[in-house]
Design brief:
Blueprint: E1 5-6, H1 17-30, H2 40-60, E2 67-70, H3 73-83, E3 91-94, H4 100-111, E4 116-119, E5 138-142, H5 154-164, E6 169-173, H6 185-188, E7 192-196, E8 207-211, E9 227-231, E10 234-237, H7 251-266, H8 272-281, E11 287-289, E12 298-302, H9 307-316, E13 319-320, E14 322-324, H10 329-335, E15 340-343, H11 351-365
Parallel strand pairs: 1-13, 3-4, 3-5, 5-6, 6-7
Antiparallel strand pairs: 2-8, 7-8, 9-10, 11-12, 12-15, 14-15
Length: about 375
């Protein structure tokens, strides 16, 4: 059986053995529901959830009551589009490096006549132009483009936005950022941050939503576990974060998330592999690189070749890449392209993987 060279970590990170084993152990030895029982096993699951919440809070320099478990970044962004008050006069600021999941939930609110969209200027390298951030009431900030892979100066961007409007509500999409850079919500002074567990090597189906002032917002999902009591028509909600976590949590995924954070803290992806691939691809005629050498991904196109054809030919050589518009239509409109090819690495990738990738590119382009 041929070895698959998986170079698509930015789409979803491969799971290490310790994460897989942690989830297996939970399912086979420790499984019960959370927040629903007083038996020893149920209490142990409650403790596991709280330990993971504390680990996530430490990972982001937050308090535990500010950490809400979600189904992922997309789920969190849709929650926020309904949690944040918006009216016809609300000025919503977005940027053309946004992923669909960051912008579309808010775009739908605007289409329902709840606000006006403005697009933040980008500099000549398609980074958010910190010196020209316009006025906003709500600002959706992509901390790292999944196409270009450059970490944005989030703290500086938010500081600039607050100079225009001290009450601006800032929403940070950190789905790509989280695996490469440290998140410090206090240093950022942001109102919300979202990211997905599967981007750091945890399972799909679990994500994190940070809320700076959880007591200031109402839940938008309703069901079990988020109500303290109901008397007549009066409802008393549970305290944050429970009030935002209606229904059964993704417990198996939460168990794996804690382990994935430990693994990531010990071993982040090696960006020297991206630099090596960049230098090698620069030597190949007909290859046009779109990302910077020090970016966290390598994105490129090949002259006179459709990206889907290129992806299929690489797949036939057992190399997994991302091809297409990567759910980032606006940045490709700026690049005047329909899509591109993206290489991304995890801590499990080696220089041999990259050398095989470069060899395969040369064969296809030839």
């Amino acid at each position: 059986m041929n070895k698959i060279i998986y170079l698509d970590a930015a789409a979803s990170y491969q799971k290490c053995e310790s994460v897989i084993q942690t989830e297996i152990d939970f399912l086979t030895r420790n499984y019960a529901n959370a927040g629903r029982g007083i038996c020893a096993r149920a209490v142990a699951v409650d403790d596991m959830v709280q330990r993971c919440r504390a680990k996530v809070a430490g990972f982001m320099n937050a308090r535990t009551d500010q950490i809400v478990f979600t189904a992922g970044t997309t789920d969190a962004m849709n929650m926020l589009a309904n949690m944040i008050p918006m009216s016809a006069r609300t000025k919503l600021l977005v940027a053309d490096i946004d992923h669909h999941s960051a912008r579309l939930p808010f775009d739908q609110k605007v289409r329902a006549r709840a606000g006006v969209i403005n697009v933040c200027p980008l500099d000549d390298k398609l980074n958010i132009d910190v010196d020209n951030v316009p006025y906003a009431d709500v600002f959706v900030i992509t901390a790292m483009s999944n196409v270009l892979g450059m970490p944005q100066k989030v703290a500086d961007i938010i500081r600039a936005a607050r100079q225009k409007n001290p009450n601006v509500v800032t929403v940070v999409d950190a789905a790509q950022y989280v695996v490469h850079e440290k998140i410090d919500v206090r240093a950022w002074n942001c109102d919300f941050v979202c990211w997905s567990g599967h981007k750091i090597g945890a399972d799909t189906g679990v994500g994190v939503l940070y809320i700076k002032n959880p007591e200031s917002y109402m839940p938008v999902k309703f069901g079990g576990g988020m109500v303290n009591k109901i008397v007549g028509d009066k409802i008393t909600w549970n305290n944050p974060p429970d009030v935002f976590e209606a229904g059964t949590l993704p417990l198996t995924q939460i168990a794996g998330l804690a382990q994935a954070i430990d693994e990531l803290n010990q071993n982040r992806p090696n960006m020297e592999l991206i630099k090596y691939a960049f230098d090698e691809l620069q030597k190949i005629q007909n290859v046009k690189i779109l990302s910077e050498r020090d970016a966290c991904v390598l994105t490129f196109v090949v002259d006179a070749m459709h990206v889907l054809d290129f992806g299929a030919l690489m797949g036939a050589r057992d190399v997994c890449l991302r091809v297409g518009n990567m759910c980032a239509s606006w940045v490709f409109a700026r690049l005047n392209l329909d899509g591109a090819i993206r290489l991304s690495v995890g801590a499990y990738n080696t220089i041999d993987d990259i050398k095989y990738f470069v060899k395969s590119v040369k064969e296809i382009v030839k």
